[in-house]
Amino acid sequence: MKGAATATAHANIALIKYWGKADDRLHLPRTSSLSVTLDGLETTTTVVFGGAPQDELVLDGVPRSGEQLRRVSVFLDLIRSRSVESRPARVVSQNRVSTAAGLASSASGFAALAAAGARAAGLDLDDRALSRLARRGSGSASRSVFGGLVVWHAGSDDATSFAEPVPCGTDLSVLVITLSGAPKAISSREAMRRTVRTSPLYEAWATRSTEDLREVSAALERGDLESAGPVIEANALGMHATMLAARPAILYWMPETLGALAAVREARAAGFPAWATIDAGPNVKVVTDAAHSADLLGWMRRRLPEATVTANGMGHGVRVREGAEL
Ligand code: PMV
Fold first, then answer.
1. Domain residues for 65?
2. What does the alpha-carbon distance between residue 253 and residue 282 come to, in Å, rounded to a whole number?
């Protein structure tokens, strides 16, 4: 079918966080970030230009309106403005991630939408251009274009802010501890804005984050998770500290979040390589390596029987093909 394409993209978990924008419209971040793309957690999206009288979004089987549709429509406008395509589009998207629960569904979502939309509109983009386009939908989506370990260079304008894969000397695995699937009370977009504007801790975290990124990329390149782990955990906890100091304060955690952090400390004391990271939500992710993943998964499930715990290896980048599949 002409004007139709389908793409699948995976979620990513930041090891060094993106928190705070330098430019709200272009989604230019204040700091560079580093992530690992995960297998399992994925979004598949079909875009059909000319498939509806006006832009339409069906997400996880439910037709969407309001802010969700508006965000997709604004993104499609960007694609239409760069291509010969001018028709409205029907977008059908299926997640295998819990939407808006801090599991980065916007990352896999906008990476898949960018790839399917660009292909359906006849745009021929290389990976870097696709990463820049995905960034305009959601910052973290710029990283989901690629598989494995990925750095997103903050850059200083639209052309220089893109992600690319970087070498990783160890096979990483991430345990996702789901404590709540409830949608978050405050969007990461709003929370970032408030943190940058009002948190006295923000500048200190942003400065330190640049050093953290250097240290963690170098350690992971030589396969040294023992050195990278403590910095990964500190960077995430520091990000949440900036939010706590914002006015009014932003607190994504639940009591169970502290319980999961305690479990990660115990797992380390028991000899596992295990370090926690937390995004804009209450759920905890545990960074480990593939060699310890199955044992740590069993250990965590016994330790946290109320939670849902899954293990995710490193995933590949976005995959796009012609035609409508959904
Ligand atoms: O998904 P976005 O672009 O709204 O940003 C989310 C930011 C965090 O997930 C909290 C951190 C990150 O780097 O992914």
1. 4-167
2. 4
46 Cα to the center of ligand 1, angstroms: 24
Could you give the number of structural domains in the chain? 2
The dihedrals phi and psi of 240, each to the nearest 5 degrees, come to -70, -30
Cα 206 to Cα 30, 43, 88, 110, 151, distances in angstroms:
7, 30, 40, 25, 16
Torsion of CA 191, 192, 198, 202, to 10 degrees: 130
132 and 179 share a domain?
A: no
Other CB atoms within a 10 A radius of the CB of residue 270 amount to 12
- Buried b / exposed e over 194-227, threshold 16 CB at 10 Å, is bbbeebebbeebbeebeebbebbbebbeeeebee
Reference 129, options 161, 84, 166; nearest CA is 161
Rounded-to-integer distance, Cα 253 and Cα 250, Å: 9
pTM of the model: 0.96
Secondary structure letter of residue 317 according to DSSP: -
Which of 75, 136, 279, 284 for mutating ligand 1's site (highest number of atoms within 8 Å of CB)? 279
The Cα 169–Cα 189 span in angstroms is 33
pLDDT in tens, 131-159: 999 999 999 999 999 999 999 999 999 99
Q: How far is the CA of 279 from the centre of ligand 1 (A)?
A: 7
Same domain, yes or no: 203 and 73: no
